[in-house]
Amino acid sequence: MADRREVEFVDTPEEVDRAYRAQLKLAATYGIVFFVSVLLIPFLSGSAEWWYGKPIWGGFTLNYLVVAILFHVFYVILAYFFVKQANALEDKLLGGEEEVRKND
Amino acid sequence: MTNLAAILMVLVLLVVTIGISFYTRRFTRTSVDFYLAGRKIGFFTNASAICGDYFSAASFLGVAAAVYASGLDGVWYGTGFGAAFVPVVLFLASPLRRFGEYTIPDFLYARFGNKDLARIIGIIMVQLISLFYLAPQMYGAGTTWQVLVGAGIFGLDPYTTGVVVVVVVMAFYVAMGGMKGTTWNQMIQFWVLFTAMALVVAGGFLNGFSYPTHLKEVSKDVLKNTKTMTVKEATTPDPKTGVAPIDAAKASMSKDSYEAALKIVKEGKPDDKVVLVLNQKNKLHPERPMKFNEPGHRYTWFDQFSMVLALVLGTSGLPHIMNRYYTNPSGKAARLTTVWVLVFVGTFYIMAAIAGVAGRYFLSEAFLAGKIDPTGIAVDGLLIKTDQLMPLLGKYFFGQFGLGYVVAGAFAAMWSTIGGLLMASAASWGHDLYEQYINPNAPEWKKVAVGKTAVVLMALLSLIIGIAIPYYGLDKAYPSLIAMMVTWAFSVSASAFVPTLILGMWWKRITFRGALAGMTLGGFGAVFFIFMNILKETKMVDPASFWGYLGSLTFPVAITVPVGIVAIVLVSLLDKNVPHNVEEIWMRIHGTAKERRERALGLIS
Questions:
Q1: Distance (Å, rounded) from C-alpha B439 to C-alpha B535?
Q2: CB neighbours (10 Å) of residue B260?
Q3: B184 domain-assigned
Q4: Do the domain assignments include residue B28?
C-alpha cells in the first residue's frame, strides 16, 4: 500500500505560480519602502538643513535620532510584518489541492 | 597594555572553543554534516551563529571607534551593517533555503541549466570575497594582539604572533568541528561579544550617561581628532589652504600639547612621528563647521549613498552568511531566523553608537582629570588609536574585569567571522570543485578529509595575507584599513552575486548567458575599481593620471551593481534561452510541498 502522505503533499504549477506572483508583489512592495527609506536618509543629509543641522532633543538632530535609533526599530518592524504576511500567503495559496484529495 | 585578566579570559574562550570542536567532531562523518550540520539548526541558534559570522572586529571594535572619531557618519556606517539583512529576508532567505543546495556556486550551476561555467565563476567569486574579508580579519588579529596582549612568542613580534595564533586556532576548530562545531562556537562567541558591548553601555548608564545630554555636550564645539604624522608631513603646507598642519594645530591644541609637538617638529628628523590634534573638516557641507552630531566627516554626498548601498546589498551575497541559510530546516525557519538576526544586529548597532558617544565624553573627561594616564594613548583627552576605545571603556567602567571581557569579545568577534569564512571557502574548494569535478565518486570519509584539508590550506593562505599587509604598506595607505577592506568584500559580493541571486529567484526569463554577463561585469568590475584604488593610494599610479582617476572611486557599488543588473536583463532578453527545467526550478523555489511533507512526518517543526 502506498504511503498516503507521500501522495497528498503536492503543489500544482498553477498554485505555485499564484504564490510566486503574490510573494513577488509583497517582497517588491516592502523592498520599495525599504530602499526609498534607506536612500532618503543620505538625500536629506545632503540637502535639508532642518534634517541635519537643527537639534530637536538635547544633541539629537533628526538625522542623528533616525540613524542611531529609529531606523533600527523601523527595519525590524518592517521585517517582522513582512515575514508574518509572507508565511500567511504561503499557507493560504499553497496546499489547496491536497485538501481536495484528502476529502476524496 | 599586557593584562592578566585579558589573557585569562581569552584562554577560557579558547578552551571552550576547542572543547566544543572536540565534542562535535563526531558530527562530521558525512559531507552534509561537515558543511551544513545536517540541515537541522534551529532559528535561534542559527540567528546567533549568523550574527557571530557577521560581527567581525570591524563591527565590534570598529563601529564604536568610527562613531567616536566621526560622529554621525560613524553611526551611518553601523546603520548600513544593521539594515543589510532586510534585502536578505525580503528576497533570498526562504527561496535560497528551499532550493536546497550546499553553496552559492551550487545554486548557480543548478539554476542556470547545469552549466559548469556558472559554478566555476561562482567559485572564483566566493574565493575572492572570502580573501577580501579574511585579509582585514587577519590584520585585525595582529593589531588586536599587538595592542591588547602586547607580547610575542617564539621570537615573533606581537603582530605576527597574533596572526599565527588566530590562524592556528581557527584551522583547528573549523577542521575538527565542521559546521556543527563552528555553529556552536559562533553562537557562544556572538553572545560573548554582544554582552561585552552591553557591559560597556551599561557602564556608561551606571555612570550617569544621558544620550541627549552627552550628545549635546560632545557636539557643542568643532569636531577634533588626533592625527599621527611625520615631521615632514606636519611641516608641508596644504596645497589648498597653504597652511602646514603644525601651524593649523596651534588653534586646536592645548598650549602644553602644542609646545611638546612643536619641540619634536623643531628638533626631530623628517621621519620622526608627531601627534597633532586638528579641527576636522566637513566633506558634505564644506561651508559648515564639522560637528559630532552632523554628517560629513567621513563621506561626501556620493559616498553617503554608495557606502550604504555596498553594505545593504553586499550582505546578500556574502558566502559565509548565505551558506548558513542552507542549514535551516525550512524556508519559514530561514525567514524567522532573519528577523531574529535583525533584532540582534539592530540592538548591537544602537549600543555601538552609544559606546562611541560615551567614549568621547567619559574618556576625554578621565584623561583630562588624570583618572587614566594619557601617556602614549591620548593627546588633549583624545585617543591616538580609536580602536582602543572599547577596551579602554571596559577598563574605565569595570576595571581589569571589564578590560578582560572586552578583549575576549574582540577575539570572539574575530574567531567567529574567520571560522565562517574558512568554512565557506572550504565548502567551495571541497564541495564545489573536488566533489563535482575531481572525484565525484569519492567516499564520504574522503569528501570530509578534503574539506578539512581545504580549511587548513585556506588558513595558511590567510596567514600569508596577514603578514603581507604591513609588508606592502597597505596599513599605511589606508588609515581605517579594517573598515575599508570589509567594505571592499561587500562591494565585490554586491556586484558579483546579488543581482544574479535576486533575479535568479524572482525572474523566470533570466538566462545562463545573462547571469554570466552580470556576474562577470559586476564582480570583476568591482575588483578592477578596488585594485585601481589600491594602486592610487599606494602611489603605484599617479593620482592625477587617467588610471588615478579610475582609482578615485572608493565604493564602486553605485556603478557596478546597476551595470550588472542591466547586463543580466539585456543579455537575457536577447538570448531568450531560458533553462528547460525552469518550471521545475520554480516549484522548488516557490513551492512548499516538500516542507509540508517533512512537517507531517515530524522531520521539521
A1: 40
A2: 14
A3: yes
A4: yes
B 236-295 near A (Cβ less than 8 A):
284-285, 288, 292-295
- CA-based R_g, chain A, Å: 22
Return the C-alpha torsion angle B201, B202, B203, B204, nearest 10. Answer: 60
pLDDT band at B605 (very low <50, low <70, confident <90, very high): low
Looking at the structure, do residues B379 and B457 belong to the same domain, yes or no? yes
**Does the beta carbon of B561 lie under 8 angstroms from any beta carbon of chain A?**
no
Mean pLDDT of B338-351: 96
Residue B115 DSSP SS3:
coil
Give the total number of structural domains in chain A: 1
Terminal Cα distance for chain B, rounded: 49
Report the chain B residue with the minimal C-alpha distance to residue A9: B593
Reported as a pLDDT band with limits 50, 70 and 90, residue A5 is: very low
Report the distance separating Cα B319 and Cα B423, nearest Å.
Answer: 10
Return all residues near B285 (Cβ < 8 A) that are at least 6 apart.
A52, B294, B296
How far are the Cα atoms of B148, B242, B319, B322, B435 from residue B325, in angstroms, in the given order? 34, 55, 10, 5, 21
In a domain, B201, yes or no: yes
Boundary of a domain, candidates B448, B471, B494? B471
Does residue B100 surpass a pLDDT of 50? yes
Q: State which amino acid sits at residue B391.
A: P
Q: How far apart are CA B349 and CA B571, in angstroms?
A: 40
Domain hosting residue A47, numbered range: 15-94
Q: B321 CB contacts (<8 Å, ≥6 apart)?
A: B50, B53, B54, B88, B315, B420
Does B503 touch chain A if contact means CB atoms closer than 8 Å? no
B591 within a domain of the structure (yes/no): no
Last residue of a domain, one of B423, B452, B471: B471
Chain B residues within 8 A of A17 when measuring between CB atoms: 586
**Per-residue 3-state assignment (H helix, E strand, C coil) for B442-498:** CCHHHHHHHHHHHHHHHHHHHHHHHHHHHHCCHHHHCCCHHHHHHHHHHHHHHHHCH
Of residues A20, A83, A95, nearest to B335 (C-beta) = A83
* Interface touch A86/B312, C-beta < 8 Å: no
ipTM for the complex shown:
0.90
- Name the residue range of residue B193's domain: 4-215+300-471
Chain B residues whose CB is inside 8 A of the A21 CB are none
pLDDT tens-place string over residues B229-271: 999 999 999 888 899 999 999 999 999 999 999 999 999 899 8
Same domain, B60 and B147: yes
* Joined grid coordinates for residue B383: 585617543
> If DSSP codes are grouped into helix, strand and coil, which group holds residue B71?
coil
- Looking at the 3D structure of chain B, how many domains does it have? 2
Provide the CATH number for the domain around residue B342: 1.20.1730.10
B214 touches chain A (CB under 8 A): yes
Burial class of residue B235 in the structure, from the number of CB atoms within 10 Å of its CB (0-12 exposed, 13-18 middle, 19+ buried): middle
